[in-house]
Amino acid sequence: MTSIQESITTRRTSKQSLATPVAKDLLIDLLAQASAAPYHKKEPWLVKLVTTTEEKDFLYDRIIQFYEESGVIHDEKSREKLTAKMNRLIRNAPATLLFAHEVYPDKKRLTSDAALATAALIQNFSLLLAEHDLVGFWASSAFTLEPDFAKKIGLPDNYSLIANYRVGYRDPDAKVSTGKRRPPSEWISDLRG
User: Fold this and answer.
1) Span 123-137, pLDDT tens digits
2) Which pTM was predicted?
3) 34 Cβ contact list (under 8 Å, min separation 6)
4) What is the pLDDT of residues 92-112, one digit of tens each?
5) What is the torsion angle, in degrees rounded to the nearest 10, for the CA atoms of residue 9, residue 14, residue 20 and residue 26?
6) Which contacts (CB < 8 Å, 24+ apart) does range 121-125 have?
7) CA atoms lying within 13 Å on the CB side of residue 120
8) What spatial distance separates the first Cα and last Cα of the chain, rounded to whole Å?
9) Each residue's pLDDT tens digit, 159-180
């Protein structure tokens, strides 16, 4: 059995995966396990699963519309670049999960707690993927920060997207980045140090 330390230190984000579909039931089971994340009062998260061609097309269309309305797509070159990228990242992804957290108007602390709890859920989910030879890529794309986009994909008014997360089976030929970490001495200090 893999230790918690090994799970944390060997987990890697991967933009590349096999095209093999990921069973929806498996994703739901992993999310249920990940929901042991800490939170106050009630679970503040919602997750939208995008696994079918119809769902992928719906999400793709909303993303392209967002990029058109925000001016990111402003000519044929930018359209070609973004449609190719979104085809690869959304339509060709075995699964995409859209994570959202509850927003509490006029309660900044509760909203912050909800975002942090949802981030803990995502981290738990990320660690669980490896047990099934799955890899994930957590992105906070520009559209995740836009409240109108969240409404257009069916989230309630009091929820904000926090992550666009792609999942697929590990590609054994994909290069795995080991990532560099700063030494603790650079980011840990005494309170008054």
Assistant:
1) 999 999 888 888 888
2) 0.89
3) 121, 122, 124, 125, 128
4) 999 999 999 999 999 999 999
5) 50
6) 121/31, 121/34, 121/35, 121/37, 121/45, 122/34, 122/162, 122/163, 122/165, 123/37, 124/33, 124/34, 124/35, 124/36, 124/37, 125/30, 125/31, 125/34, 125/97, 125/165
7) 14
8) 40
9) 999 999 999 988 778 776 667 8
